[in-house]
Amino acid sequence: MTVFAYTVQEDQHLERIDTFIATQNDEWSRSQVQTWLKEDFVLVNGEKIKRNYKVKQGDEISVSVPDPKPLEVIAENIPLDVYYEDADVIVVNKPRGMVVHPALGHETGTLVNALMYHCKDLSGINGVLRPGIVHRIDKDTSGLLMVAKNDVAHEKLADQLRQKTSVRKYIAIVHGVIPHEEGTIDAPIGRDKTDRQSMTVTEDNSKEAVTHFRVLDRFDEFTLVECQLETGRTHQIRVHMKYIGYPLAGDPKYGPRKTLDIDGQALHAAVLGFKHPRTNEYLELSSPIPKVLENIIEQLQR
């Protein structure tokens, strides 16, 4: 068990205790904090408190976080759509609906489970639950993902993401008709204080986020766009397009309820470019949009 200690500041006075604690760590949700409160893992000035307690300036908060239960990653014979592979890197085309790595509630059936069976050799930089994973895409986002087979390759590929030299282009269907041909969204993204499971454009505890977009086609009430990531924040395209008033179609978290008949956001990682970690040769791969998105585009065109 790990104990974290915090002191309530003036601008945090009278915040709910669960909100206060959840904002201290991006990995903590309010529901998780509520469980810790129920189990008396949270003390205020050394005393137990009610779950609806409102913190006061100067309060000393201690949070005893239980050690996580270890998850065993099981290699599973799940078919992979491999676009490129050698001794250092593998690029796969992830289908919609597949989670990238195991977590509570998704211990099996993930891309990592499939990779463990297919590769046998993946970098260990991100630990046992995320072996080889250099970057992620959301469960309901399809498309290309690069995975490192050794630590040297992992470091070099991750460095390209940090240096913004890799190329990641996505195809998306958004609500509304965008009048201009292209644009750049430069707006920092951080955790939403009112909903810890969501991200938002904010100046508080945020990181730089830049998305470039261009219009590919327009329909009566929707627009087909290509989005190119300059940075890679959690839910970046989904948050940025909502921010400028054109949320992704089908997005259950950031989009409107009345949307296209699609399970999850209409987003596909179509182009992935990077320098090979060993040869330094530039590789650029592209994958066609999945049939479900192709069918929707055809319907919108009609």
Key structural traits:
single chain; 302 residues; alpha+beta; 3-stranded antiparallel sheet; globular
SSE inventory with pairings:
Elements: E1 2-7, H1 17-22, H2 30-38, E2 42-44, E3 60-65, E4 82-85, E5 89-94, H3 111-119, E6 142-148, H4 151-163, E7 167-175, E8 182-186, E9 189-192, E10 195-201, E11 206-207, E12 210-218, E13 222-229, H5 236-243, E14 267-275, E15 282-286, H6 291-301
Parallel strand pairs: 6-14
Antiparallel strand pairs: 1-3, 2-3, 4-5, 5-6, 7-13, 7-14, 8-12, 9-10, 9-11, 12-13, 14-15
C-alpha Rg (nearest Å): 21 Å
DSSP summary: helix tally: 6
Strand residue content:
25-35%
N-to-C SSE string, H for helix and E for strand: EHHEEEEHEHEEEEEEEHEEH
Which blocks of ≥5 consecutive residues have pLDDT under 50?
A: none
Query: What does the overall shape look like?
Result: globular
Mean pLDDT: 92
> In this structure, how is the largest beta sheet organized?
9 strands, mixed
Number of strands: 15
- Derived from helix and strand composition plus strand pairing, the structural class reads alpha+beta
What's the end-to-end separation, in Å?
A: 59 Å
Question: What is the percent of helical residues?
Answer: 10-25%
Would you write up a description of this structure?
The protein has 302 residues and is of the alpha+beta class. The chain has 6 helices and 15 strands. Strands 4, 5, 6, 7, 8, 12, 13, 14 and 15 form a 9-stranded mixed β-sheet that branches. The protein is globular, with a radius of gyration of 21 Å.
Short summary:
This protein is 19% helix and 30% strand. It has 302 residues and is α+β, with helices and mostly antiparallel strands.
